[in-house]
Amino acid sequence: MKTSAPDTHDDLRDALRALCAGFPPEYHRKHGAAETYPAEFVDALTEAGWLAAMIPEEFGGSGLGLTEASIVMEEINRSGGNAGHCHGQMYNMGTLLRHGSDVQKQQYLPSIASGKLRLQSMAVTEPTTGTDTTKLKTTAVKKGDRYVINGQKVWISRLQHSDLMILLARTTPLSEVKRKSQGMSIFIVDLKDAIGNGMEIQPIDNLVGHETNEVFFDNLEIPAENLIGEEGHGFHHILDGLNAERTLISAECIGDGYWFVEKSRDYACERVVFDRPIGQNQGVQFPISKSYVAIEAANLMRFEACKRFDAGQDCGAQANMAKLLAADASWEAANACIQTYGGFGFAREYDIERKFRETRLYQVAPISTNLILSYVGEHILGMPRSF
Ligand SMILES: Cc1cc2nc3c(=O)[nH]c(=O)nc-3n(C[C@H](O)[C@H](O)[C@H](O)COP(=O)(O)OP(=O)(O)OC[C@H]3O[C@@H](n4cnc5c(N)ncnc54)[C@H](O)[C@@H]3O)c2cc1C
Predict the structure, then answer these.
(1) Are residues 45 and 166 in the same domain?
(2) Is the CB of 367 under 6 A from ligand 1?
(3) Which of residues 198, 232, 266 is at a domain's end?
(4) Looking at the structure, do residues 247 and 344 belong to the same domain, yes or no?
(5) Does the annotation count 74 as an active-site position?
(6) Same domain, 207 and 241
(7) Burial classification of residue 327, based on how many CB atoms lie within 10 Å of its CB (0-12 exposed, 13-18 middle, 19 or more buried)
(8) 358 and 306 part of one domain
(9) What is the reported pLDDT for 1?
(10) Do 154 and 270 reside in the same domain of the chain?
(11) 114 CA distance to ligand 1 centroid (A)?
(12) Nearest CA to 40 among 55, 28, 49?
């Protein structure tokens, strides 16, 4: 399918498509229906080095940019898979790379690059405070050479398929800081040591079969050297990585969007009702065309965000706008697709209902559309702050 995006990565796409072809629709359908984790697919991506795309070569990664990393994510979704099962490995390491000490980087990054260690999880969201992150209640109190963690998190993904987790917790009470974004810190948690020793997890049964969990901390002790970056600056350290996360997820939505449009177009051309292909009816054709236009526009913004990120320029506006445009476009394409298929859109064997559910997530996570609009209103357009 033609695209207007400035994309010159045919070799990269060909390699990804060859790998993904080994995991046909039946594979993803089986895991989707059983709500099991596609471990073989994630292992294959890891072994081929794709999930270490952004780790610098000096630490054993490929040293590629966000542009290439986003193409990896896009191709996974475009092939019918779901990069949500493994995208954490791609962007969580960025926090370590930017803010970790030399010792931490040497300790973790080569093993993450080789696939020996999985850094798939980041624990920010809490059940009582939700999007109001600076009010989070999980605390980390320094006692000698350890931090003691107490509190609760929710929706923490891929914990059962990860060795490490990045945790955001409050180290100085909210009442004692000048700005609410101060006084939080990030830590690297070794899940093997933590689970059962002060950290418990409870899987959440959910719409998308996504491996995600409630987490309870009851006097979990972690070594003080697991603090990443400066104590009290964790919120800003985490924010730094969110532009990469948003851009990568916009690429996943774009992969979903093209998948839906291709499916819709093919079916609209072949399904004959009233003695003609349904796609001959403009009522069927136009929603598909419209969603293609939206995906194309989102794709341009996604590559603009990637270009700026890779050049070390500020890309907050573009990353947020790409995420919003792409999430909306993939959802529009999903709706057009299920409508084009009529009743068959609801049958598992066509994969549409699964992808429909999966792409709906991106209206809400990792940041909801409302919160992006408020970012645009306040930070780009200069309108009054609403919270
Ligand atoms: C499958 C899944 C996986 C996830 N994985 C992770 C993970 O790995 N790690 C992690 O930390 N989190 C994760 N999350 C959490 C996700 O980031 C949050 O669900 C999301 O940011 C929304 O927060 P919330 O659910 O607390 O909604 P709330 O903050 O309770 O908000 C509810 C609704 O109200 C809207 N709203 C709230 N305040 C405002 C306002 N001021 N103006 C306008 N609208 C507002 C929100 O946009 C939202 O639609 C995951 C969530 C899901 C569903």
Answers:
(1) no
(2) yes
(3) 232
(4) yes
(5) no
(6) no
(7) buried
(8) yes
(9) 81
(10) no
(11) 32
(12) 28
Residue 385 located in a structural domain: no
Judgement on whether residues 219 and 338 belong to the same structural domain of the protein: no
Q: How far is the CA of 187 from the centre of ligand 1 (A)?
A: 22
Q: 61: domain range?
A: 10-114
Q: Is the CB of 387 under 6 A from ligand 1?
A: yes
Task: Determine the pLDDT at residue 6.
Answer: 80
Is residue 2, in this structure, part of any structural domain at all? no
Say what the pTM is.
0.97
Q: How many domains does the chain have?
A: 3
- The C-alpha angle 325, 330, 335, rounded to 5 degrees, equals 125
pLDDT for 224-265, tens place per residue?
999 999 999 999 999 878 999 999 999 999 999 999 999 999
Q: Mean pLDDT throughout 1-12?
A: 87
In the block, residue with structure tokens 């357009």: 381
Domain end point (choices 96, 114, 132): 114
For position 110, which CATH number holds? 1.10.540.10
Please classify residue 163 by burial: count the beta carbons closer than 10 Å to its beta carbon, then call 0-12 exposed, 13-18 middle and 19+ buried. middle
Element of type H or E holding 260: helix 234-270
| Percent of the chain whose predicted confidence (pLDDT) is above 70 | 100
For residues 374 and 387, the answer to whether their CB atoms sit within 8 Å is yes
71/180 same-domain check: no
In short, whether 210's Cβ falls inside 6 Å of ligand 1 is yes
Q: What value does the mean pLDDT of the chain take?
A: 97
Residue pLDDT, tens place only, 149-159: 999 999 999 99
Beta strand ranges found along 95-206 (DSSP E): 121-123, 139-143, 146-157, 164-170, 184-190, 199-203
Quick: pLDDT tens for 92-141: 999 999 999 999 999 999 999 999 999 999 999 999 999 999 999 999 99
